[in-house]
Predict the 3D structure of the following.
Amino acid sequence: MTPEDREGYLRDLRLSLEAGYKILQAGGSSLDATEAAVRVMEDSPLFNAGKGAVFSRDGKNVLEASIMDGRTRKAGAATQLMTVKNPISLARKIMDSSPHVFVAGADAESFASSEGLEIVDPGYFWTERRWKQHKSSPNSITVSESTQHDEFHEKGDNLPKGTVGACALDRHGNLAAATSTGGKTNKWSGRIGDSPIIGAGTFAENRVVAVSATGDGEYFIRWNVAYDIASKIKYGGQSLGKASKETIDHLKTVGGEGGIIAIDSTGKIALEANTPGMFRGYVGRDGVVKVAIFMDEPCV
Ligand code: ASP
């Protein structure tokens, strides 16, 4: 990572945290704060979501996102998107204004348009950096069925990968979590990862926890990571720190790399990863924004 890249990531992380904090500070909801924070990262070309999304094996940017309201356990999720500029806002609309939780593809895109969300040409998501990654990464279709996943896992995109997420607690005690991604480089275009799956990549329940995850989606789905952490807290009485660490450490032992950000109803946070780095940051009641990239460096 060049010093310019590093500065860019830290700058956009700060902008994202500031956007969310501004809403909380003004008495707004954790849902609005998480949506706003994620939109900033979707609009940045640096992160693997929205504008900076990775390419699938056939050269498409296929986006997905989800959001969850801890107050009601309502949730919205969308996948197989190629023209929605801000997938997180579509997830929010699905939660607020549709009869469903999870909607895919053309139907989701026409709902986005009918709700007045910004629709873009698929070319909007093209970035040179991601195109080069697509061209230079191994194509998972060439590996055999039995080894497919491990090959994909070992030779895939270098970490940190850049799925984006936000978790927030507002002054009314309401928790929310939001996650948005372009998935994995050279994924099958029809592949769905953990990010839009409630309980895997995103989960929020008041008085328990809000969690957003990044990493090898196949593992996060199979180990139901966000809900695994929540259930350790809810039924096992564990602290947020212990539950997050246990789940993420365990994931590593079975081959899954990645991490989570989380906040509980007392405002405690967890920024846990089993990888060398995870773009991350937080802003507490004092309003001071702190960010970091590698796990051996503290947020400053
Ligand atoms: N979790 C995402 C996915 O598997 C990728 C990532 O977080 O890097 O789609």
